[in-house]
Amino acid sequence: MSPSGAQSAIPYRQIRAKYDDETITVYQAYSAAIAIPAVREQKLDAAPDFKPDRMTWIKPSWAWMMYRSGYSFKDANQAHILAIMMTHQNFHKLLFLASVTGHRKKPMTAEEREKPVRVQWDPERTARIEELPYRSIQIGIAGEVRKKWVEEWIEGIEDVTDMARELKKAIEWEELNGLSEEELVSKGLVPQEGPYEVDEQVRRILEMDVEW
Predict the structure, then answer these.
(1) If residue 206 lies in a helix (H) or strand (E), which one and from where to where?
(2) Sheet containing strand 80-87, strands side by side
(3) 113-117, Cβ contacts within 8 angstroms, sequence gap of 24 or more
(4) pTM > 0.90
(5) In terms of Cα–Cα distance, which of 26, 90, 14 is closest to 56?
(6) Pairing state between β 98-100 and 117-125
(7) pLDDT for 194-209, tens place per residue?
């Protein structure tokens, strides 16, 4: 199948992520002051600079994290890319508590506005952060659920900044020309990601079957 054919076969809204039998990986970018203690202590709130009351956004897509953080070079507050592991059960709990914001035909209801988790479907990106014709999920967590996520639902934290910067270097040196996704994975420049399935109830909550 050609690259364009492969892209057209991907649903407009689909969760794609790195995962195994026990956990799913999501990404965030932080300053060194937050990220280094977080990895050392395996606690996201290990540093006093961490702000516990602000909505936090997680991203299962590596390429979208690269776009958002500029491969960790965008600014000092995004200088470290963290891979954060959580169980499938707790990830599904987040999605079940979500309401979709943006790219909607109808305004949010009062009930939806009260939900502690927000979902946005933004254009997915390639490893070169080029925009793709289908969407990638971003998940915002607030309130008591955010506190539970930070304190109880994180299974592991890894600093993957070097991987992001090696990918950026390879792009600048034009080393990615003609490489397939499998070859990028084998070179350690991108993680192995695949479609992440959720049940029909969660699909309805996330509005996964609409195309606008």
Answers:
(1) none
(2) 156-159, 80-87, 23-30, 16-19, 194-195
(3) 116/141, 116/142, 116/143, 116/144, 116/145, 116/146, 117/141, 117/142, 117/145
(4) yes
(5) 26
(6) parallel
(7) 999 999 999 999 999 9
